[in-house]
From TrEMBL:
PROSITE patterns: TNASE_3. This is Thermonuclease family protein. Keywords: Endonuclease, Hydrolase, Nuclease, Signal. It comes from Mariniradius sediminis. The keyword Transcription does not apply. Residues 27-155 form the TNase-like domain. SUPFAM superfamilies: Staphylococcal nuclease. The lineage of its organism: Bacteria, Pseudomonadati, Bacteroidota, Cytophagia, Cytophagales.
Length: 155
């Protein structure tokens, strides 16, 4: 009986530990400066839209033209993400009307990607309730980027 309890306890602890460890997902493709794809452990790919940021369009789609600094924003995100993995954090709404997963993303070195893109001027803030966890923080960073004429605020 003790052995069975020990085995059950060990299994429970291992399961709990695995679920508490941050899961990093490999990035497989960058769509533009605020959207990319990751591969889940089951092999399925998932489209991620960064919460709280809006990068200029990097390609003409439908009725949207290529935006000023759009190609630079995409290239920068590719440089940061391709061949790397990210950890995702969610807010209140997990998906948008286009069925993309909404998330905050962290690089393996701890960089908060959403924040970084705004700070460096590769994206603007875009607050869409109820996902407002970092809205004030992002607004301050955007004001600083504008003042310092970084990225899309530079020309």
């Amino acid at each position: 009986m003790r052995q069975k309890i020990g085995i059950l306890l060990t299994c429970f602890l291992l399961f709990s530990f695995q679920n508490s460890v941050a899961q990093f997902l490999p990035v497989t493709k960058v769509v533009d400066g605020d959207t990319f794809w990751v591969k889940r452990s089951n092999g399925k790919e998932e489209k991620i839209r960064l919460i709280g940021v809006d990068a200029p369009e990097s390609r003409k789609t439908g009725n949207k033209d290529v935006g000023y600094y759009g190609k630079e924003a995409k290239a920068y995100l590719e440089k940061l993400l391709l061949g790397k993995s990210v950890r995702l954090e969610y807010d209140v709404s997990r998906t948008d009307r286009y069925k993309r997963t909404l998330a905050y993303a962290y690089l393996q070195n701890g960089t908060f990607l959403n924040e970084h893109l705004i700070r460096e001027g590769y994206a603007m803030t875009l607050t869409v309730p109820p996902n407002v966890k970092y809205a004030e923080r992002f607004a301050k960073l955007q004001a600083e980027a504008r003042q310092k004429k970084k990225g899309l605020w530079g020309k």
